[in-house]
Amino acid sequence: MAINLVDPAGLVKVDLYRQVSVATGSKLVFVAGQVALDADGVIVGEGDLAAQVEQCYLNVATALAEVGASFHQVAKLTVYAVDLVPEKLPLFAEGVARAAAKLGVTPTPPLTGVGVAALAAPGLLVEVEATAVVD
Question: What CATH architecture is 2-134?
Answer without folding.
Answer: 2-Layer Sandwich (3.30)
